[in-house]
Amino acid sequence: MRFLLIEDNAQLAEAVVDRLMLDGHVVDHAPDLQTACSFTDTTSYDLILLDIMLPDGDGRSFLETHRNQKSKTPVIVLTARSEVSDRVGILDLGADDYMVKPIDFSELEARCRAVLRRRGGAAHNLLTLGDLRFDSLSGTLKVADRDIQLRTRELRLFEVLANAPGQVFSKSALVDRLFSYDEDVTENAIEVYVARLRRHLQASTVKITTIRGLGYKLETE
Q: How distant, in Å, are the alpha carbons of 24, 37, 46, 101, 121 from that of 6?
């Protein structure tokens, strides 16, 4: 999953980015609203983590604009304000969740998972496709009673494909979902990870199909 963190506290931002990247997520960091808007104008995100007090404005204005533009990207607000009225106002503006600082990282990870599950219409971390079961929390595939432990990039690639079975993803779209602006990669990297996933899926009815000239899609025989 690709996240955008909008946070001006450099120390906190570094800690959040490091923690989420350990989970295999791609995280772009914007220290202000101007940078955040330049990112969202060119990149699609699975989740936005939004601070309220920013050097060039109020995060609530970003949230309001984000929702007025009919964006469905979920937003978790990170706020130092603990008053009920503040939290109610944040939710009424369209936030999917909020956390009061200081942040507990385990809780942050859990809230991210919960918001992403709700967006996908799921109540838990388990996904069943054909004869395959996928646990996004543990990063485990079960095929024919055999557990397959995915590496980080394999996990996130499979997650993108499995959350939209039948949808074709171009190589450039997958690069955008799997790598941050700071990482210098080519589309050949996607071919490598697709090949690895295909080896894992050899005994399954679920396959990654190449659509020549367009990209890849996940489908069940």
A: 19, 10, 14, 14, 26
pTM to 2 decimals?
Answer: 0.74
CATH number (domain holding residue 194): 1.10.10.10
Domain ends where: 86, 119, 152? 119
Last residue of a domain, one of 119, 150, 167: 119
The number of residues making up the chain comes to 221
- Cα separation, 46 vs 3, whole angstroms: 6
pLDDT digits (tens, 9 = 90+) for 136-157: 777 788 887 788 888 888 888 9
- Cα distances (angstroms) measured from residue 43 to each of 46, 82, 158, 176, 205: 10, 32, 20, 7, 33
